[in-house]
Amino acid sequence: MSEATGKVFDVKSFRRTLAFVRPYKTIGILSLVLTVLLSALAPVQPKLIKFTLDNDLVMGRTRQLLYMIILLLAFLLLRGVIQFLNTYYTNLLGQNIIKDMRINLYRHIIDLRLQFYDQTPIGTLCTRVISDIETIADMFSEGLIVMFNQLLTIIVIIIIMFMDDVWMTLLSLSVFPLLLFATYLFQKATQVSFQEVRTQVARLNAFVQEHITGMSVVQIFNREEAEFEKFKQINNAHKIANIKAIWYYSIFFPVVDLLSAMAIAAIVWKGGEGILFHTESFGTVVEFTIYIGILFVPIRQLADKFNTLQMGVVAGQRIFKVFDNESFIEDNGTIHIEKTDGNLIFKNVWFAYSDENWALRNVSFKVDPGQTLAIVGATGAGKSSIINILGRYYEFQKGSILLDGIDIKDIKIETMRRNIAIVLQDVFLFSDSIANNIALYNNNITQDQIEAAAEAIGANEFIKNLPGGYNYNVRERGAMLSAGQRQLVAFIRAYVQNPGVLILDEATSSIDTESEKLIQAAIEKLTEHRTSIIIAHRLATIQRANKILVLDHGEVVEEGTHRELLARNGFYKKLYEIQFEKGERTII
Ligand SMILES: Nc1ncnc2c1ncn2[C@@H]1O[C@H](COP(=O)(O)OP(=O)(O)O)[C@@H](O)[C@H]1O
Ligand SMILES: [Mg+2]
Q1: For the residues of 371-382, what is the DSSP string, one character each?
Q2: Max Cα-Cα span within the chain
Q3: Residue 545 pLDDT more than 80?
Q4: I want to staple 532 with a disulfide (CB 3.0 to 4.6 A). Which of 3, 249, 527, 570 is the partner?
């Protein structure tokens, strides 16, 4: 929330926001015309009343009086209709704008490289896409146009007042300097307190989101009481911030009402004198008391609307900051690959996530079509980084990677990714049916294909036994499935793609022997006749591989088959002893 200090009115971000109005010019113009019309109609009611009082009432024309009242009612009805249309169209405008903005923003962030997501908290992005954009809608429907209407109304009324009676007008406006000063103080105070409220809301959001996600940790370590205390504190701060904002409102509104009452009192006093001495008409005095009413309502709201406007501008600034983030992976490749042969070569590849902290140093290896390469190494050795750069989720700095003899930077990313299926260590499932989690809404994948893939992987049986089978909703992150089952679903997801290259980051967490067997068989099926790279933790997988690459601190230290490497009595032998002979299988 640090960037929420938009003290100055930012014209640039305001203009960029206005650009979103362009497709809805007609609605925008319609809203403006209706707004101008409403302001222009503001003096009609007091004028009609004045006329009725001075001509019909004072002259005692009862019939005329009735006509005037009907006319007045008809006018109020007409104004009501215009008001309705105005509210409808300004909100329509606001909603259309935020719909476009949201779609554009999502379109933008969906292509940002993963590095951006490493560095941006989820909560912050959700706030941008949801509530910040909402604030912009308010700016249009409740801020800008309403403010314009109020300013215009004030101007129209003051002009009419001066035309009617200069002396009475000056009397009515005598409280204005005080009013302006009060408004200024109020606006300043609420601006600060609103910022405070927004900060507290963000804290509350972040806390609830994180702690619900990590609820199991809270409960496992008996932290319920402590976390509850923390939550109460944040909640209390949120309350205090809100009360402070409300406090300013509860002072400001009575102050404005008091000032308006004083203005009316002055009119009644001086106007009453005028009636007695026949220098003012009865109608004029009543007319002016109504003018004061009309004048003070918008003044009372203007300060508030100014806050809405400013909040919209601040939200705009934050949203445009995301729009301005251009950290995309460069997709300059022009070569389309239909179906890869699965010939993969790494040539002296260097890669760092940042600066010169090399996660991979001069890595070279080769996988022939249909072969399986196992990569082993300690935690942090750089195994997963190989996947990250091969799928072009991160850019590597030096060397080259060749697929079918073509530099992958020359290949159109989309066509390359279509040929490479990756199963990550942490399986991510959406809260959706099993079938949708497998096909990921790719219409080319039929239910038959899904079931055939599940059959091949050996998971058909367990899925069929779930309530609803393939329609079973796995809930957020697949919470309704076991770790082994989630892994199998991820395998089917990769298998139905029938990719030329398969990459698998084996899960390190141990699973029950039953699932273990299923998964081992599934891996064999997945890698059959397919170029595969497996970051391997299971002995069975490692032994079956055509070649094993041993990584240490980002460097390839050994390469060969299981037998060859054991015979060499080096790094691999040591890893093997730690991992399998002493039974600590999670170290690699
Ligand atoms: N997203 C990331 N941003 C910055 N550094 C990272 C990121 N992911 C991994 N690293 C660092 O890169 C190195 C290699 O990590 P990784 O390839 O994930 O290792 P492994 O998969 O072998 O356990 C580690 O030092 C790790 O801290
Ligand atoms: Mg890893």
Answers
A1: -EEEEEE-TTSS
A2: 121
A3: yes
A4: 527
Q: Which helix (H) or strand (E) holds 51?
A: helix 44-51
Cβ of residue 168 lying under 6 Å from some atom of ligand 1: no
Residue with tokens 């079918």: 404
Ligand 1 closest atom vs CA 381: 22
Say how far apart CA 540 and CA 545 lie, in whole Å: 9
Alpha carbon nearest to ligand 1 atom 16, residue:
382
Q: What is the 3-state secondary structure (H, E, C) of 127-163?
A: HHHHHHHHHHHHHHHHHHHHHHHHHHHHHHHHHHHHH
- The one-letter amino acid code at 53 reads L
Q: What backbone torsions phi and psi does residue 557 show, to the nearest 5 degrees?
A: -100, -30
Name the helix (H) or strand (E) containing 403.
Answer: strand 398-403
558 sits in which H/E element:
strand 555-560
Q: Are 388 and 434 in contact (CB under 8 A)?
A: no
- Report the run of H or E that residue 461 belongs to, with start and end: helix 460-464
CA 203 – ligand 1 centroid, Å: 29
What local confidence, expressed as pLDDT, does residue 585 receive? 47
Taken in order 540, 546, 552, 558, is the CA torsion positive or negative?
Answer: positive
Contact predicate 5/200, CB 8 Å: no
pLDDT score recorded for residue 510: 64
pLDDT in tens, 265-306: 999 998 899 888 888 888 889 999 999 988 888 887 887 788
What residues contact 10, with CB distance under 8 A and at least 6 apart? 313, 316, 317
- Average pLDDT of the residues in 299-321: 82
pTM, two decimals, is: 0.75
pLDDT (0 to 100) of residue 301:
82
The conformation of residue 328, written as its DSSP 8-state character, comes to B
For residue 212, give the amino acid letter.
Answer: I
Structural domains present in the chain: 11-323 (1.20.1560.10), 344-581 (3.40.50.300)
The two tokens of residue 460 are 């058909």
Q: At what angle do helices 145-164 and 25-41 cross, to 10 degrees?
A: 30
Structure tokens at 248: 């300013």
Residues 6+ apart with CB under 8 A from 206: 121, 123
